[in-house]
Amino acid sequence: xxxFDAGTPGMSDDxxxxxxxxxxxxxxxxxxxxxxxxxxxxxxxxxxxxxxxxSIVGLEYEFYxxxxxxxxxxxxxVHALMRVPRRLLGxxxxxxxxxxxxxxxxxxxxxxxxxGLRAQESEVRARLDAALDCAxxxxxxxxxxxxxxxxxxxxxxxxxxxxxxxxxGVRLATNMSNSVRYHAMANGxxxxxxxxxxxxxxxxxxxxxxxxxxxxSIQPHYQVPHAADLPYHFxxxxxxxxxxxxxxxxxxxFPADLYxxxxxxxxxxxxxxxxxxxxxxxxxxxxxxxxxxxxxGDLDTVEDAVDRVVxxxxxxxxxxxxxxxxxxxxxxxRRKHGTYWRWVRPVFDGASRSSANARIEFRPxxxxxxxxxxxxxxxxxxxxxxxxPRLDHPVIDLDxxxxxxxxxTAMREGPHGDLRWIDVxxxxxxxxxxxxxxxxxxxxxxxxxxxSEEEANYYLEPLRKRVETGVTPADxxxxxxxxALGDADDxxxxxxxxxxxxxxxxxxxxxxxxxxxxx
Length: 519
Description:
It comes from Haloferax prahovense (strain DSM 18310 / JCM 13924 / TL6). The chain has helices at residues 15-23, 27-46, 86-92, 114-136, 157-162, 180-184, 230-248, 265-271, 276-285, 302-311, 331-337, 371-391, 400-413, 431-448, 453-469, 473-486, 491-509; strands spanning 2-3, 56-67, 102-106, 110-111, 140-143, 164-167, 170-173, 195-199, 202-206, 218-223, 344-349, 357-362, 421-422, 428-429.
């Protein structure tokens, strides 16, 4: 850590002061207000304020920026990570995320019907197309991926992720967005001495949560029509989490300089996991005494979902300003929910009573190679949430422990691991039989939402292709690295060649193609 330099990228003159203001908030008072807010929220839930007449879908979509190669000083800098100018985010209409290299899009919520799904896909493509044009003017490209692996030109990944400064005793990550919440995590009274990244053959310690900026994801949202039914949908979401994660694995490699000294390429390929994104998020944010990221337990009632947020450990007790919005009546609880990270989590909000909603945020899926593949996961999750509870599908009887085991097996091995499922006939099934049942019911859920058979099959086709071919994005990446190693490249060179090919193929297919076109 070094002393503060006013010219350091990402630092603002008053950031440390704003972090100190947050740290001055009385934690006990914050907790008491969150608990009081929870009672307000539960009363509104009982009164039916959060009930709606239809299901609603939405999507959060994260990207990172890389050099497009036009102005690179050397071939080694092609597709290297780049910081996104803050003014450019505004021009794109995107939001800042944890790292300066990140950009996030949030779609407008739409009814779950054929028009709503088309609107989701069209909005993503329209806004992303415009954003790519903005980025190109700066010599950069936005990438949809699970984890970046080529660090910024002239820097190592370790330097980029661990660089920090001190300003008046406040630790500030140099390459982190100037969001007070993110910086405050490293400075509170319960903050650990360091934040540790732990994965096979990878270990990294940082003064801040910046190592979490390695990863990017998509997060489908499904709004339930009746809030009281949220737990039943939620428990089904836990059972589909492992199988859907397995099809979406897309982060088998870290940047080369993060691997331990002496580890071989063969060891990295043999021991590495298919979705290291899961390990990054859990190990970094669970550093110290906090257990912030986890596969959640089943819910019994919708009130239980509210209570879990109240009972979650508080990292950043930030004050809130209350206005005239409906959800300002539980603003402190909403603030606490911002650091309530679970792989599947309930959300309650709405600017007005008429827009109040109870929804499920599905967080296991990494950024995907193409928009169509990303929308496929959104549609599959929505279809399953629409169909499985209505059918009382017997997979709800799958033990929670088995659902959790499925999730972490999927993290390690993708669809090639031993995932278990109960099919519609009540039989224990694995492998192709699992996915046949899963995707049939995702299709039937889309049909219930008004999609034609042709439309439903269109949305799910990218996932069916992965089942039929046995190839996930993680498999594709491993194969490319193995091929390069077979040509006598060292691991770092092989990794860079793979990552460049990923970006180049995506350049041709992100908006209009599909991952299956890559092989």
